[in-house]
Amino acid sequence: MSSNTPPRPVRDLRFFLTVPHACSYLPGKEATTLFLDPQESPVPGVYDSLALLGFRRSGRHLYRPHCEGCNACRSVRIPIEQFAANRTQRKIWHRNADISVRVAPARYSAQHYTLYADYIRQRHADGDMYPPSREQYRTFLTLEEPYAHLMEMYLGNELVGVAAFDQLEHGLSAIYTFFAVSDTLDKRSLGTFAILQLIELSREKALPHLYLGYWIEECRKMRYKQAFAPLEMLDGRHWRQLIR
């Protein structure tokens, strides 16, 4: 289905459930994923509607957790007009004033892949994306759709980070960020800087939200999302402010 084809109503779409598998975030837990029929391309309209219901994109697939007896994964987003950077975030913003940012289509780049592979090896060797491969990277982060983008971060002429994101009707959706890992660059908090840049881009485009994907209270790796207050959390079909 091309981007110009009118999307089918969401109620007419088909969805599938995966078989239970080991949860990537909570040890000892099993997870089940609900995903849109792979024959349906994640076209605008369908994607916009499903994002409001907590669906995320990975490559050409739209999915969300659907685990029996567990609702630990919560979809969260930043309401742009209400967000004000805290003291730490302001320091990170100024610390990275020498970094330039460019937005490009979500196409394959050998330079991007090299940075991604090194990031996975150094930061996520214990995760399900290890070991990295070019095919895995292409399938996950490249997509020839007008809404899919990559934000490149440069320190001088050196590529130090890439943030994949989508532009929806009601906000930007942060897909995945990877960056150079070193003692010097770690002090820059490039992951936080990337989110701050996406917040500014949302403001420039007059988009009301930045979607951060799923938040799990018990997951240490996801705690950074709580710093972007006020967060809104999807509670059933309604978005409500997350009270901590």
Automatic annotation (TrEMBL):
Tell me which Pfam families the record gives: ATE_C (PF04377), ATE_N (PF04376)
Annotated organism of origin: Halomonas casei
* InterPro entries named in the record: Acyl_CoA_acyltransferase (IPR016181), Asp_Glu_LeuTrfase (IPR017138), N-end_Aminoacyl_Trfase (IPR030700), N-end_Aminoacyl_Trfase_C (IPR007472), N-end_Aminoacyl_Trfase_N (IPR007471)
User: Which Enzyme Commission number(s) are listed?
Assistant: 2.3.2.29
N-end rule aminoacyl transferase C-terminal domain: from which residue to which, for each copy? 111-235
Q: Which UniProt keywords apply?
A: Acyltransferase, Cytoplasm, Transferase
Q: Which residues form the N-end aminoacyl transferase N-terminal domain?
A: 21-91
- Give compartment(s): Cytoplasm
Under the heading NCBIfam families, the entry gives:
PRK01305.1-1, PRK01305.1-3, PRK01305.2-3
Q: Name one GO molecular function term.
A: arginyl-tRNA--protein transferase activity
Any idea what job this protein has? Functions in the N-end rule pathway of protein degradation where it conjugates Leu from its aminoacyl-tRNA to the N-termini of proteins containing an N-terminal aspartate or glutamate.
Known catalysed reaction(s)?
N-terminal L-aspartyl-[protein] + L-leucyl-tRNA(Leu) = N-terminal L-leucyl-L-aspartyl-[protein] + tRNA(Leu) + H(+); N-terminal L-glutamyl-[protein] + L-leucyl-tRNA(Leu) = N-terminal L-leucyl-L-glutamyl-[protein] + tRNA(Leu) + H(+)
Would you identify the family this protein belongs to, as annotated? Belongs to the R-transferase family. Bpt subfamily.
Superkingdom, natural source: Bacteria
* Protein name from the UniProt record: Aspartate/glutamate leucyltransferase
Q: Which PANTHER family does the entry link to?
A: ARGININE-TRNA-PROTEIN TRANSFERASE 1, ARGINYL-TRNA--PROTEIN TRANSFERASE 1
Say yes or no: keyword Cytoplasm present: yes
